[in-house]
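Support request from a user on the community tier.

User writes: "When I paste my structure tokens into the form, the page sometimes reloads and wipes my input. The last time it worked, I copied everything first. Here is what I submitted, just in case something in the input itself triggers the reload:"
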């Protein structure tokens, strides 16, 4: 068969084009909970009237190339770029437990990225979460998301002021603990009879990967707790370091188990507990080490080099 993207003749049973990598097997339509990000450059139309088309293209290329890196870094996928608008999907084809949070963090980062470029343009962003159908259209093209969620995300983007990131109700509910918002109330948007509740994302409240967790009773972990208590008692009694690695499938209670041990260590051993979280996006491999130092020395990620150095020196002293 011929690749629909580049026209290269591909082997009969090939799933991807050997030349360009385009998928040759159509995936069935899927229903997914996904988060859509619509980003639109402000002033693109007026700029196009007065500037040379090649100059305009260079500006748009530079902006979207940098923002596409942000989308990929946070685990999303650029769905399409049309004119001055970029559309990204979080939750399809790969799903994460925190896709809504990733999308909002990415949107805020995209605004910072655009400001750092100094291109002289601003951007409006709309973010919305809900059920979509993901699949390729029979007329051709790559798989895309369709549904009312997409329409609302587009309308939120249109309602945003330059530099703003507006989110819908489900996105707000899923990220309330980790993102700071300003409530804008119901907004009347084009093409909808009912107003849409909207919030403006202001800043992040927690480092990536942090979650507020309710303390629940621990059940069925007596043997594991006894082993960990023995290691803790031995370390405290002998003043020797121990390293414990806890591994298990997702969702079986690793964090809850460690949380119980930490609580007992603080209550019984007067232990100083330093925490760090690993995240698969947005930060480099040194992030957990840096976070532990910040936690131990009581300064935040926005601190200057001089402030951090002074806090570390005081702690060591």
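"...and here is what came back when it finally went through:"
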């Amino acid at each position: 068969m011929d690749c629909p993207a580049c026209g290269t003749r591909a082997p009969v049973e090939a799933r991807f084009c050997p030349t360009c990598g385009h998928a040759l097997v159509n995936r069935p339509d899927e229903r997914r909970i996904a988060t859509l990000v619509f980003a639109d450059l402000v002033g693109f139309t007026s700029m196009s009237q007065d500037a040379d088309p090649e100059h305009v293209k260079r500006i748009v290329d530079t902006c979207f190339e940098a923002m596409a890196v942000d989308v990929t870094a946070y685990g999303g996928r650029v769905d399409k770029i049309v004119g001055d608008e970029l559309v990204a999907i979080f939750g399809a084809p790969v799903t994460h437990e925190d896709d809504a949070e990733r999308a909002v963090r990415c949107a805020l980062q995209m605004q910072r990225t655009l400001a750092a470029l100094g291109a002289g343009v601003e951007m409006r962003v709309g973010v919305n979460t809900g059920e979509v159908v993901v699949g390729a259209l029979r007329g051709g093209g790559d798989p895309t998301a369709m549904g009312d969620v997409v329409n609302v995300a587009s309308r939120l983007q249109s309602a945003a002021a330059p530099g703003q990131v507006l989110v819908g109700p489900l996105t707000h509910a899923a990220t309330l603990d980790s993102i700071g918002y300003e409530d804008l109330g119901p907004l009347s948007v084009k093409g909808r009879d009912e107003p849409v509740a909207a919030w403006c994302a202001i800043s992040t409240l927690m480092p990536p990967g942090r979650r507020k967790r309710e303390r629940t009773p621990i059940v069925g972990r007596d043997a594991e707790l006894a082993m960990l208590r023995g290691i803790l008692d031995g370390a405290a009694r002998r003043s020797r370091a121990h390293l414990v690695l806890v591994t298990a499938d997702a969702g079986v209670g690793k964090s809850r188990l460690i949380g119980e041990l930490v609580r007992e260590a603080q209550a019984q051993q007067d232990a100083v507990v330093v925490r760090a979280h690993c995240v698969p996006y947005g930060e480099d491999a040194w992030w957990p080490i840096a976070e532990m130092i910040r936690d131990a020395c009581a300064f935040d990620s926005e601190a200057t080099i001089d402030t951090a150095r002074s806090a570390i020196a005081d702690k060591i002293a």
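Agent notes: The reload is a front-end session timeout and is unrelated to the input. The chain has a mean pLDDT of 87. The longest strand covers residues 122-135. Escalated to web team.
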